[in-house]
Amino acid sequence: MSKHDHQRRHESDGFTCIHCKLQVPGIAWGTKHRNHCPACLYSRHVDETPGDRANPCKAPMAPIALEVRGDDHNSSRTGLGTGEWAIIHRCTACHTLKTNRIAGDDSERALLALALRPLANPAFPLDGFR
Ligand SMILES: [Zn+2]
Ligand SMILES: [Zn+2]
Fold it and tell me: pTM of the full predicted structure?
């Protein structure tokens, strides 16, 4: 790795989406390190730990699923937690899985499409539910 990191300091100011080429501003409500595109939800494999940009892979990471996270402090009462959504990304090169909190301005349509994907493409016949 190079020691010239003068360019990396500004990466949190924004980036160009690796998938749909959208110019993405770095500041987003609800997250400190925006790492995925709010329009198509694609990410890029750049972090070892969130925000460090230390991973040399740099391949696109495709959104493959949603996770609903519980909160340990609140979940003991309801068993359901706070219901915070996170996106599971899979690297298209090395197949690493990462979980990223959604940002406040992520496309709700893209998030719902991701959530509904297993239902639109069931692994078993749905005839019995009609
Ligand atoms: Zn995009
Ligand atoms: Zn990778």
Answer: 0.74
